[in-house]
Amino acid sequence: MIRGERGSASRVVAWWRRRSRWTRLASGAVVAAAAGLVLASGLDRTFPLPMERLNDLSVVVTDRKGQPLRVFPTRDGAWRLPGDRAQVASIYLDLLLAYEDRRFYAHPGVDPLAVLRALGQDLAAGRVVSGASTLTMQVAHLLEPRPRSLLGKGRQVARALQLEWHFDKRQILDMYLTLAPFGGTLQGIEAASRSWFGKAPADLTVAEAALLVALPRQPSRLRPDRDPLAVTRARDAVLARAVAAGLLDPARAAQARGEAVPTGRQPFPGLAPHLTAAVRRAAPGLSVIQTTLDGDLQRAVEGLARRLLPTLLDGAGMAILVVDNHDATVLAHLGAPDYGAAQRLGWIDMVNAPRSPGSTLKPFIYGLGFDEHIVHPDTVIDDVSTRFGDYAPRNFDKAFHGPVTAAEALQRSLNIPAVEILDHLGPLHFVDALARVGVRLRLPRGDDAPGLPIALGGVGVTLRDVTTLYSALARGGKVMALRDRVAAPPAASVPLFSAESAAQLLDILRGASAPPGMMPSVIRAGRVAVALKTGTSFGFRDAWAVGVTPRFTVGVWVGRPDGTPSPDRMGLSQAAPIVYQVFDLLPGESPVAPPLPPPPVPVLLAHLAPARPQGPIRLPDPNRLQLTFPVRGSVIELSHPDGGWDALAIQATGGRRPLSFLVDGRPVGAPSRERDAEWQPAHAGPIRVTVIDADGRSDAAEVEVR
Q1: How far apart are CA 537 and CA 637, in angstroms?
Q2: Rounded CA gap, 148 and 141, in Å?
């Protein structure tokens, strides 16, 4: 067996000796190359490319057209945006290759001809006058910065070969466009172009492109804001090289040399700061996040808010949300007018902060009442002093208006009719109906079940949810969750009530009062009618207004984020004008067809009787003096959450004026031609309220104040 093996080996050696010297050399080269490949593969696995900086990119949040809304710096504080050769002006790429690496697409990462040229020039001059770094070698240095030494240059060459092994030329060029330094914390052509020139790299002129080709050579010394003369000379050198290479004709280069260089950096955009921060948190790992916002509209809305800011009280802010009704996408999102301002708590996103909605939920009480045949737009409801157990609501104007239709009650935002409908509907049923379509109401602390006060704002809800509900009116009562990212799939539409009820509500709200000093939208040139609803929360803490057209919904909140009350903050005067001004920023819409006349009111819906016994209905009688509030035998809570006492409203109808009001026999102010007065209690307990008219007729009620 051993002899056989030796015989075989002898035959191999004899065969090898019979080969020619050149054949042996070639075979040895193949063996050496194979061994080299094995060694290189092992080194590649042992020392993988350091790609950390390339993977640590600035997050860019864009609008629906891909234009940046906000740019976030990297972990190391750099502005490093992804580079893409397809998104860069071709003149920049041509100038870059002509100036930095003419044989980029031909060499394997190291250019032997450039090395020989550099050695010859350096030997002739007796010093280093020229380098031989290719773009691939520059990328290697940017990925793994090393001191400039012979050993460092050797590592750079090895990394360049490693890059060419793993990536093609286009990918390596994109790496350069991402990592190249352009002064300070600017890295990459995208960040440089937008910061120095305020434009995308695709829009660079010849002069701008030449400047950005020159800048990475010495990014600290050649910064335009530090030494405009030095960067001008460097730019002109790039242009001269381009003329010599035949890329530019002398006339075009001369024109480019005549352009001034920038003297300062332009800030990166910071639009929609609350929303952009939220979508960044919701999409970790993405370097580019596209939102549904319209960048031009967002910029206009933020400008409007800044102009209105001086008109607000100290510490007050606002929130604005604009929605496209067709697909429930958010077009503009303003969480605060001055992001980060301590005085106004500007870092709080008031679009998503729960607040008391005032009367803004009333239309949805009516809509569900329409669907369940509790009420019809023409149903008569008695707006009179009414007790609902221990709850005795009153209107905003402190008066009662007698029999009114449901449509009129909603247009005038009367409180008693809304509470009456909710009493028939059931507060729990109403809250559950909103929950089914994705809108969650926050009950006051300590409340286990919803009560009738939710009709007048006794609950917490966000502007986003309120706007979501109003947007559904334009889709026939179908609610869709709002979408603010292009990548998010559209939400399913869930009906809250019928299309007929939604159309009736829109028709009613189009007849609501316009803000003071503004024309109704129906007669404004080029505008369709806006269905408007306003709301004011208890203590004037929150002013709301929401406007709906077939295409858009605009929601506005005004108030102090800390909940401080303000005596003059009302939805109609504070928030509604902003709704109209935002609609002026939106494109016009085609007028909608007039609604069909409503069907006759069913007999059973002609008049809405109270859901609970009230005794005889006390309708206003102009010939009879009546004390309509407070109601006899009622218990009235007047304590204020902030301490102290709320005033007791006293109201009367009929009789001949002037009227005199008394509490426990003491006059409340002087006799007046008004039919109401306010009495400020000092302590709890039973009181007797009396009204006396000019003929001496009187009416009285005994109540208890708590």
Answers
A1: 18
A2: 10
User: Cα dihedral angle (143, 145, 148, 152), rounded to 10 degrees?
Assistant: -70
User: For residues 356 and 334, what is the distance between their CA atoms, to the nearest angstrom?
Assistant: 19
Q: How many residues does the chain have?
A: 706
* Distant-in-sequence, close-in-space partners of 501: CB < 8 Å, separation ≥ 6: 367, 368, 370, 371, 477
519-536: per-residue pLDDT in tens?
655 445 456 889 999 999
- pLDDT, tens digit (0-9, with 9 covering 90-100), for 229-252: 999 999 999 999 999 999 999 999
Is the CATH code 3.20.20.70 the one for domain 626-705?
A: no
Radius of gyration of the chain (CA): 38
What are the Cα distances from residue 648, in Å, to 407, 631, 679? 29, 12, 5
What is the rounded CA–CA span in Å between residue 168 and residue 136? 11
Contacts with 346 (C-beta within 8 Å, 6 or more apart), sequence order: 317, 336, 337, 338, 339, 340
Residue with tokens 């729960």: 354
Answer yes or no: is pLDDT of 131 > 70.
no
Tell me how far apart the alpha carbons of residues 481 and 490 are, in angstroms, rounded to a whole number: 8
Q: What is the DSSP code (8-state) at residue 134?
A: -
The conformational region for residue 656 under phi > 0 = left, psi -120 to 50 = alpha, else beta, is beta
pLDDT in tens, 440-459: 999 887 777 899 999 999 99
Residue 10 CB burial class (10 angstroms; 0-12, 13-18, ≥19): exposed
Query: Is 383 exposed, middle or buried (CB count within 10 Å of its CB: 0-12, 13-18, 19+)?
Result: buried
Residues marked active site are found at: 100, 359
CA distance 171 to 164: 10
Nearest to 395 by CA among 431, 428, 362, 351: 362
> How many whole angstroms separate alpha carbon 219 and alpha carbon 233?
14
Write a three-state SS string for 528-579: CCCEEEEEECHHHCEEEEEEECCCEEEEEEEECCCCCCCCCCCHHHHHHHHH
C-alpha to C-alpha distances, 527 to 233, 581, 585, 587, 590, nearest whole angstrom: 56, 12, 11, 9, 8
Nearest to 601 by CA among 407, 310, 401, 323: 407
Q: Classify 78-257 by CATH class.
A: mainly alpha
Name 402's bridge partners.
383
The domain segmentation of the chain, as residue ranges, is 2-46, 78-257, 626-705
pTM tops 0.70: yes
DSSP label at residue 485: B
Cβ-in-10-Å burial (0-12, 13-18, 19+) of 340 comes to exposed
Closest to 274 (Cα-Cα) out of 196, 337, 229: 337
